[in-house]
Inverse folding.
């Protein structure tokens, strides 16, 4: 005889009955946000080698310009001395960068937004060579003096151009170490406005003064000043891609700036000095203190009042 209770128990024993389990199919949400190690964007052997090559080229250019200066009277060495100073300071800057000095790191923080877990951050440190900004703050005003003396710019125009140049370089340095976003690109915008002031001084006033001298001087100034402004335009483009948006590696940044520096300094200097030597209308002869020091006509008299 079959017990009905026992039969019911057997019939229901094969049914799925909810049971408790020590293992949950859903993993718990982590309470600690995973962090990643900082990323360092630095130069490699390629970048360092490039710095050494440019250093050697700047030294060679300095020696060549100095030899050219000693072959002419001291009264006519103005362009030669200024141009030699340009490559000298550039050589010192590249030596500093090649030997590991003149650089620091700018910190950037990238935030990755997530839907179901907390946002994560990635810290990036990019190597910034501030030595090149020191170089530019000295060499670019000297280069502007070359162009200003060639054109015959007035003292007022020279002062405006040099101050605008210093503003351009310094705000570029501030932008390189500035916070991402409004601050960084605000400095960049100021630098670009200052560059436009330089363009105006050279393209308008400089060209007018050069043409007023004679046709050859006007043509030469137009060519070399136009060349300089085109080369200088590459600098903010490289900055925007490299230090600004970090779309370029540090090595690529070094190579790009190196090419532009060579075009803007040794090539510019050689063109200026060789053309200057073959174009008498561009000669500037300085007497007085420049050539003779504090003697003769260049002396400074402190006893003008003989009866005193």
């Amino acid at each position: 005889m079959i017990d009905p209770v026992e039969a019911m128990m057997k019939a229901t024993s094969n049914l799925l009955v909810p049971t408790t389990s020590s293992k949950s199919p859903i993993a718990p949400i982590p309470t600690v946000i995973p962090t990643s190690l900082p990323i360092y964007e630095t130069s490699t052997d390629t970048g360092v080698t490039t710095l050494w090559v440019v250093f050697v080229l700047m030294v060679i250019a300095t020696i060549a310009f100095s030899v050219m200066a000693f072959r002419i009277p001291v009264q006519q060495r103005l362009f030669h001395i200024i141009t030699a100073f340009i490559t000298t300071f550039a050589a010192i800057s590249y030596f500093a960068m090649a030997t590991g000095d003149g650089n620091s790191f700018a910190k950037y923080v990238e935030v990755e937004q997530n839907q179901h877990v907390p946002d994560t951050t990635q810290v990036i440190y990019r190597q910034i060579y501030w030595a090149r900004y020191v170089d530019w703050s000295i060499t670019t005003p000297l280069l502007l003096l070359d162009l200003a003396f060639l054109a015959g710019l007035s003292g007022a125009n020279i002062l405006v151009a040099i101050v605008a140049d210093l503003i351009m370089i310094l705000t570029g340095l501030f932008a390189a170490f500035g916070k991402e976003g409004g601050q960084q690109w605000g400095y960049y915008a100021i630098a670009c406005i200052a560059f436009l002031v330089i363009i105006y001084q050279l393209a308008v006033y400089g060209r007018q003064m050069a043409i007023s001298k004679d046709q050859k001087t006007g043509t030469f100034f137009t060519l070399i000043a136009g060349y300089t402004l085109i080369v200088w335009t590459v600098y903010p483009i490289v900055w925007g891609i490299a230090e600004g948006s970090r779309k370029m590696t540090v090595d690529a940044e070094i190579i790009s700036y190196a090419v532009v520096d060579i075009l803007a300094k040794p090539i510019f200097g050689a063109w200026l000095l060789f053309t200057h030597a073959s174009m008498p209308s561009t000669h500037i002869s300085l007497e007085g203190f420049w050539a003779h020091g504090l003697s003769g006509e260049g002396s400074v008299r402190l006893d003008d009042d003989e009866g005193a």
